[in-house]
Design brief:
The protein has about 260 residues and is of the alpha+beta class. The chain has a domain of about 150 residues. The protein is about 15% helix and about 30% strand. Strand 6 and strand 7 form a beta hairpin. The longest helix is centred in the middle third of the chain and has 12 residues. It is globular and about 50 Å long.
Amino acid sequence: MPTLSRIRLYPIKALDAADVQSAGVLLNGALRHDREFAMMDSDDVYVNGKNKAAVHRLRATYDAALEHVTLAYVQDGQTRQRTFHLRTQFDLMEPWLSRYFAFPITLKQNWCGGHPDDTAAPGPTLISTATLETIATWFPSLSIESLRRRFRANLEISGVPPFWEDRLYGAQGQNVPFAIGDFVFEGTNPCQRCAVPTRDPDTGEIFSGFQKLFMQCRKETLPLWANATRFNHFYRLTVNTRLKSAPQGAVLRTGDPMQFIPN
């Protein structure tokens, strides 16, 4: 049976993840605390791995309540780090980040919807464990955990074959409903990837030829159940979702079963 085996949140957009055993779901479908905060430059543009390689060299770890973050980086062989309260110490965290990036950083919080990349489908992104295991055979030098960090999915599903998640979208405009625990989501599309998966998540070093090899292998292994019309190119992985229904007070939990919902 398809089972939710991992929940991964990214409290600060573009920085490291926090693995949790349960997560609430906001009204717009985003997971509570996922991409709740975002770093912005002076032009009000997101500071992320797509445009700033220094993002990859900045580590973020969180306490269990996701109330505090410890930021750290290595300079001249020395680790420099500081712990901040995420919701009350913007006045301390912003200048610390500004010094690290060497340009002004402003933090923005959106507690009621986060900062999703796909505003039309702001629900959690989803992938299967078997998919990651298969992609690891394309790139023998990369671990499964490295691939998790490169593709940055929120939910991981076990008990299914590789690329099973490609069942979760149809033709353009045809969403596929599915349930995880008490929640009903709709799969909308295979996610178009950016430059981030091509880079080492710790250093930002580019993996030469990553995108070309990925696209070749993705095309060759595209399952029969995938709707090929959604692939104008094959640099797509994970499924974007949006929330369809949720009972009041429910939470997602690892171990929750997953099933399709008849249209």
